[in-house]
Write a structure and sequence with these properties.
alpha/beta; UDP-N-acetylmuramoyl-L-alanine:D-glutamate ligase; 3 domains; eight-stranded mixed sheet; 16 helices; 36% helix; 21% strand
C-alpha cells in the first residue's frame, strides 16, 4: 500500500491515507517518511473522506464495514482493491512481474539494481524495503523511474495474480502458503500464460515443474537449467558463485539467495543486459530490510532480524543461520491467526526438520492485527506439535529476552522471526542490547 501511495504521489497526484499502526503510534519513522514526501495521514475514521476524492484504495486487511469504506461508497467514491490498482499501473507498462511463494521481494530488489546499473531506470514497486534505496525521507520500497519498465512483486495470496499481464514473468518457487498447492499451481499457470515475452521459473522446484512449460527459461543449481550456479562459497554476509564464465558476488547470505540471484540474472539477460553489467548490479544490491538482517555482533553473539514466517522461508533462514554459529535461537512470532491455522502442520514440520538438539525455539503469542479474525488458535497449538527439546512458550517479549539471556553463549546466533509486525525490528535491537550488555 505504501509503495503504491508513493508512486502515485511521485507521479503528481494528491495522496492521503490511514493505517491502524499510525493510529496506535507504531513505526513512527515509517510514517514520518511518508509525511516528509507530502503524503497526508489521517486517523482511520470517516472524517477524512470527502466528495473531492477520486477513488479509495484498500488492502485485504480492510473489512467491508470499515467506516471509511462505508462513507466512500455512500458518496459514490469508487473503492479499488490494492491489487487492482497495481495491475492497472503494471499492465500499462513494460511489466516485469516477480511471483512465487518465497523470495519475491529480494528478486524484485536484485532486478531493480541490475536495471539501474544498466541505465534503464525502472519504476519499482516492492513489498520489502530495498536497502540501497533508503534515505532520510525515502522508505525504499518504491521508486519512480523514467522508462516504461515497471518491476513489481505479484501476489498470489488473494488470487489477484491472474490480473497481471507481464512482458517478463518470474516464478521463484511454489509451496503451500495462503492456499493449497493445487490452487496455487492453477494461479501460477494462468500467470505464465499471461506472460507475453519471457517466462522464467525455478527449474529445481518440483511444484513449478508441474506447470510444464516447454519454452520456459529455467534457473537453479542443477546443470540442466538455462542458468545454473557453480563454485558456491559463503563467507559471513557475502556469497560468491559462478554462472557460465562470470564470477558473481552478492552481499547476502544463503543458498536461497543464490537462487534469487539466478532468477535476477535471467531477467537481466532477457533484456539483453551484458553479463558484466548484471554482475555490477548484483554487487550494488545490499539486501532487503528484515531478510536475515544483522542487528549486531558482540561477544561472539549475533542477533538477526528476519521476515521468515512461512515454512519455506523458515527452513531457508535456519539453514543459513546454522552456517553462522554453533547454536540457533529462533524467537518466533506467528504472523496471524488465519495463517497459523492454515499452516500449523507445515510450520511444526519446518521447525522439527530445521532445528536440532542444541537449538532453541522461543514462541511468542500470535500477532494480532485487529479486525474480525477468528482467535480460536494460539501459539501453544503450534508448540504442541514441535518436538525440539529447546522449544518453549513465553507470554511476552520481556520474558523472551530473559529466556535468551539465561541460555545464550558465545558462538550463538539469535534470530527474531515474524511478518507484518514492524515493531519486531525494534525488539530485535532491544534483545541484542540486553543480552550483550555487561552488568
Amino acid at each position: 500500500m505504501s509503495s503504491l501511495a508513493q508512486i502515485l504521489h511521485q507521479r503528481g497526484n494528491w495522496v492521503g491515507g490511514s493505517d491502524r499502526n499510525f493510529d496506535q503510534k507504531k513505526n513512527r519513522v515509517f510514517f514520518n517518511k511518508l509525511q516528509k514526501q507530502g503524503i497526508f495521514l489521517f486517523p482511520q475514521n470517516e472524517t477524512s473522506i470527502s466528495e473531492d476524492i477520486d477513488f479509495m484504495v484498500v488492502s485485504s486487511a480492510i473489512e467491508k464495514n470499515n467506516t471509511e469504506t462505508v462513507k466512500a461508497r455512500s458518496l459514490n467514491i469508487p473503492v479499488i482493491h490494492r491489487a487492482g490498482l497495481l495491475a492497472e499501473l503494471f499492465n500499462m507498462s513494460f511489466g516485469i512481474g516477480i511471483a512465487g511463494t518465497s523470495g519475491k521481494s529480494t528478486v524484485t530488489g536484485m532486478v531493480a539494481s541490475i536495471l539501474d546499473a544498466a541505465g534503464k531506470d525502472p519504476t519499482v514497486i516492492n513489498g520489502g524495503v530495498i536497502k540501497h534505496y533508503v534515505s532520510g525521507s525515502i522508505i525504499g520500497n518504491a521508486k519512480k523511474g523514467s522508462s516504461d519498465l515497471l518491476v513489481s512483486e505479484v501476489d498470489e495470496s488473494d488470487g489477484s495474480i491472474t490480473k497481471f499481464f507481464p512482458e517478463i514473468g518470474v516464478i521463484t518457487n511454489i509451496s503451500k502458503d495462503h492456499k493449497e498447492t493445487d490452487e496455487l499451481r492453477d494461479l501460477f499457470q494462468t500467470f505464465s500464460s499471461n506472460t507475453s515475452k519471457h517466462f522464467i521459473m525455478n527449474g529445481d522446484c518440483p511444484e513449478s515443474g508441474k506447470i510444464g512449460l516447454q519454452n520456459a527459461v529455467t534457473f537453479g543449481l542443477n546443470k540442466t537449467n538455462c542458468f545454473s550456479a557453480k563454485k558456491i562459497e559463503s563467507c559471513g554476509n557475502e556469497t560468491r558463485f559462478q554462472v557460465e564464465e562470470t564470477s558473481f558476488i552478492i552481499n547476502v547470505p544463503g543458498t536461497h539467495n543464490v537462487y534469487n540471484a539466478l532468477a535476477s540474472i535471467a531477467v537481466g539477460r532477457a533484456l539483453d543486459v551484458p553479463m558484466e553489467t548484471v554482475k555490477k548490479g548484483l554487487v550494488l544490491f545490499r539486501g532487503i530490510k528484515r531478510r536475515l538482517d544483522i542487528v549486531g555482533q558482540k561477544n561472539s553473539i549475533i542477533v538477526i532480524d528476519d521476515f521468515a514466517h512461512n515454512p519455506d522461508k523458515i527452513t531457508a533462514s535456519i539453514s543459513t543461520l546454522k552456517q553462522m554459529g554453533k547454536r540457533v535461537f529462533v524467537v518466533f512470532q506467528p504472523h496471524g491467526y488465519g495463517p497459523t491455522r492454515f499452516l500449523l502442520k507445515e510450520l511444526a514440520r519446518a521447525f522439527n526438520s530445521a532445528l536440532s538438539l542444541p537449538d532453541f525455539l522461543i514462541c511468542l503469542d500470535i500477532y494480532d492485527a485487529g479486525g474480525t479474525a477468528d482467535r480460536n488458535i494460539s501459539s501453544m497449538d503450534l508448540l504442541s506439535r514441535v518436538n525440539v527439546p529447546g522449544a518453549l512458550y513465553v507470554k511476552d517479549r520481556k520474558e523472551a529476552v530473559m529466556a535468551v539471556k539465561k541460555r545464550v553463549q558465545p558462538g550463538d546466533v539469535i534470530a527474531v522471526m515474524g511478518a507484518r509486525d514492524d515493531t519486531l525490528s525494534d525488539f530485535a535491537g532491544k534483545l541484542f542490547r540486553e543480552i550483550t550488555k555487561t552488568d
